[in-house]
Structures are given as structure tokens and as C-alpha cells.
Amino acid sequence: MEIGLVELSRLQFAMTAMYHFLFVPLTLGLSILVAIMETVYVMTNRPIWRQITKFWATLFGINFVLGVATGITMEFQFGMNWSYYSHYVGDIFGAPLAIEGLMAFFLEATFVGLMFFGWDKLSRVQHAVVTWLVAIGSNFSALWILIANGWMQNPVGAVFNPDTMRMEMTSFFDVMFNEVAQAKFVHTVSAGYVTASVFVLGVSALYLLKDRHKELARRSIAVASAFGLAAALSVVVLGDESGYSASHTQKMKLAAIEAMWETHPAPAPFTAVGFPDQEARETHYAVEIPWVMGLIGTRSLDTEIPGINDLVKVSEEKIRDGLIAYDALMQIRETRGATPQAVRDTFEAHSENLGYALLLKRYVDDPREATEAQILQAADDTVPGVAPLFWAFRLMVALGFSFIAVMGYFFWRASFRQMNFPRWALYLGVAIIPTPWLAAELGWFVAEFGRQPWTVDGVLPTALSASSLSVADLLITLGGFVTFYSVLFVIEMGLMVKYIRKGPFQDVAETEAWQAAHEARLRGQTNAIPAE
User: Fold this and answer.
1) By C-alpha distance, which of 447, 455, 453 is closest to 396?
2) Which of 237, 303, 496, 527 is the most core-located residue (most Cβ within 10 A)?
3) Radius of gyration of the chain from Cα atoms?
4) DSSP secondary-structure letter at 1?
5) Half-sphere exposure of 400 (CA within 13 A, CB side)
6) Can you say how many angstroms the Cα of residue 516 is from the centroid of all Cα atoms in its chain?
């Protein structure tokens, strides 16, 4: 397999996936926030909350449409750029994608029209139910996509069939309740809730700075800060759960994130900062915090976390074991239905490590003919890029804690300081609008780049997964995607800015009339209080 082809295929998929994920977090979080705001409207019957709901729903709609368009394009790439991957594991990977389309996407598509055009057709309660169904559908989409992705990280509930030369599902229950998938789902949707909360808070802060739409802005900040604080705390807690899961499902990824070259005596320290040197296999100027990594990774004081060097040796052993399975597999192919039972027994005994033998196909057509040097190189290939993972993870974590601080401060001002916000805090709220997207993209980078060199961890190497396309084909389509997505990005930003500048343009007269009457009632109550 030509390395240039594989790398271009990876670049194209990474570009489309990370661009698509610019829309996903806001869709996940804003759908819930809009549903919460409409629930307040149903409970209070105050027109201001109806206006607030419609305003944020408009921005949700813009983001939702473009997110769906980019998501469909991304899924087609499994057949276009990764055809062997689709053939090899399609029975497992395709199931949650199909369910996502049948259940979640249809749920969204059915009710999103009623959400936007059913205000005068449905009662307040009925419309609120529709809005919640749209929010649930959006989050169900994330669930099934992350079940599929979680299986790539931890391929449970499936086995390789030597007769069909494909992976086949043995337990849908195991695939669905894969611990990696469940941890990724709750962590990802919580990150989406933080993204939407920061967005709502930032836009509302901008309105307060410009002295516009103050009633909408203050109420929106109150909801966003409370919801965002809970979500930001959840992100940290659930991120810890992902780290614990990685300690026994993706040990190499965890070791690379921590730049842990050697196995430390338990409990392992956490490297706060440092400069990983992959060639020298050491981290320069490392600042370590004792015990922390052991507690996070194993939740104990006496369990070791293996280092990269020891894991490379384990990979070498798995490659050698996988070669036995590969040899038996070739005999099964050659003899077809007349394979001796002893050969099948040999394959079954060693099939768990077949994927490691396939790593050698990067260097030799028949892994059985690999040299010692090629086996050692293939084992070394199981180490992903350490420095990018190390710093991406730390920047993501730093941003996560900063969201807790910001949301906590705004929640305190909204709840205990009568919604009076200093101007410096409002400027800060506007300035941090892009940061949740940066944190989300870093999170996906850590998850996917850290899985290399595997498309399906321990099962299918990335170098074998790509379609047999030409470099010219990939360059042309990559250029087309970049151009098309750039146009969509300009459209998205233009529409968002347009409607943010326009502000809450619906139900203006009704809301202003209610607000004037409400203020008059408050003045009347104040005047009725006897002077002391």
C-alpha cells in the first residue's frame, strides 16, 4: 500500500470529520438549551421566554442544517476512501450507523419542521414536547455514531471469520454497551453542552455590552451559566472515566498521552509539563506530580501503568503470535472446505493477534517472509506521535477547567448579584466563544490520532484500510472538499452574524407590551410599601 495514498486519505477524512464536528457540539447543546427555555415558557407563560426560545432556535436551525449536510458527506467517505475497511468490518460498523439513520435522524427530521413552523398550530405543551423530541433525536444521533466509533477503539462483540475473511458480529449487546462507547458518548455530549452554554453566554454578553436586548441577555446568561457549570463539571468527571477505560483497553494511547516511556512503580506520577522526545524515548524538563496518574488511570495505589517501551515489547510478542494465525489463515484459504481441524484449531488459538501480523504488510506482501528488522519496526509503529498527543491533551484539559471557572463566576453573579456583570467579565464571555470548539477538536484529535496505526484497534491497520485510488483522485477531491466546505463555513458564519445582529425579531410587540405591564406592576408594588 502506497503510504502517500493512505496519508492523503487520512487527511481528507480528518478534514471533513473535524469540519463536521464544528456543527455537532452546538447542535447537541443548543437543542437542550432551547428545550429548557421553552419549558420555562410553558411553566411561566411569559412572552419573553417564548421570544428567547424562538431566537436561540433560529440559530440552532442554521447550525443544524449545515451539520446534517456535512455529516452525510463524511459518511460517504467510508465507501469512497476506506472501501477495504467497509468490507472488513462493515457488518459491525454499519449496524449502529443504520440505526442512527432509522431512529435518530428520522426523529429529528420528523419533528424539526413542527418545531419551527408549529408555534401557532400546537398548544404550548405540545410544542414543548416536539422541541424535546428534536433535542432527544439530536443526542441519539451522537449515541449511535459514538457506539460505532467506540467499537473502533475497543472492538468487542465480534470475531474474525476465516471463511469469509471478514469481521462478524457475535453480540450486539456487547457492541452497544461497550465501555469505551458509553464513556465517549457522555463525555462528548457534555462537551457539546459546554459549547452551547459558552455560545449563548458569549452572545448574551455581547448584547449587554452594546446595551441591547438586555432582558433576553440576562435570562439567557442565567440559564446558560447554570447549565454550563453542570456540564463543565461533568466533562471533567466523565473525562476521568475515559482515562480509566483507556488504562485497560488502549494502554498505548494512554502511555503516549502521558509520554510515559518507562513503567513506573505504582502509583505512577502525572507529567504536568515537559517536552517529549520520541527519538530519544524520553521527556525533557518533565514536571511530575506524584501518584496522580496512578489514581486517574487505575484508581488504585498498587496497580502499574505500563510504559511505552514495555508496550512495544508486548506488541512484538503479539506480532510473532499473529504470524502463527496468519499462516493458519493462508492454509484455510488454500484448502477451502477441506481444511484439517488442527489448522483451524491453531488459527482459533492465535487469531486474537492476527491484526498485529497485518502490520507487517506495510513492509512485505507476505508477513511470513518478514525479517527480524521488519518485525521490530512494525512493533515500533504501534507508538503514535507522542508530542502532539501530549500537548493536545493538556491544552484540552486546561480549557476544560477554565470553563468551570468562567461558568461558575457567571452563575454566581446571575444567582447572587442580581445579574449585574462587570464589563471585563462580559468582554471575557465574548472572547471565549471559540474556545469550546478548540477543546472539542483537540479531544477528537487525541482520540483518533492516539489510535494510530490502527483503524480498528488491534484488528485492522490503517495502512490496509484505504481504497485503491490514485493520489491525483485524492488531491482533486481534497481540493473540492476544502473549497466546498470553505463556502459552507462562510455561509454559516454570515447567517449566524446576520441573525445575532438582528436579535430577537419575533413576537416583539407582545413581549414589549408584557414587559411594560410587568414593570408597571413592580412599580405599583414598590409604591404600595409604606415609607418608614
Assistant:
1) 447
2) 496
3) 27
4) -
5) 26
6) 45
Check pLDDT > 80 for residue 531: no
Q: Tell me the pTM.
A: 0.93
3-state SS assignment for residue 93: helix
Which residue type, as a one-letter code, is found at position 324?
I
The helix or strand, by DSSP H or E, that contains position 286, with its residue range, turns out to be strand 282-289
Closest CA to 138 of 114, 108, 95: 108
**181-184: long-range pairs with CB below 8 Å, 24+:** 181/146, 181/147, 181/149, 181/150, 181/151, 181/153, 181/154, 182/150, 183/150, 183/238, 183/241, 183/242, 183/245, 184/146, 184/149, 184/150, 184/153, 184/242, 184/447
Dist. CA 85–CA 11, nearest whole Å? 16
User: Strand 166-169 and strand 158-161: pairing?
Assistant: antiparallel
Average pLDDT of span 241-260: 90
Give the tens place of pLDDT for each residue, 375-433.
Answer: 999 999 999 999 999 999 999 999 999 999 999 999 999 999 888 999 999 999 999 99
Residues 6+ apart with CB under 8 A from 15: 478, 481, 482, 485
DSSP output for 27-85: HHHHHHHHHHHHHHHHHH--HHHHHHHHHHHHHHHHHHHHHHHHHHHHHHHHHHT-HHH
Distance between CA atoms of residues 228 and 225, nearest Å = 5
Name residues whose C-beta falls within 8 Å of residue 94's C-beta, 6 or more positions apart in sequence. 86
3-state secondary structure of 213: coil
Exposed, middle or buried: residue 117 (CB in 10 Å: 0-12, 13-18, 19+)?
exposed
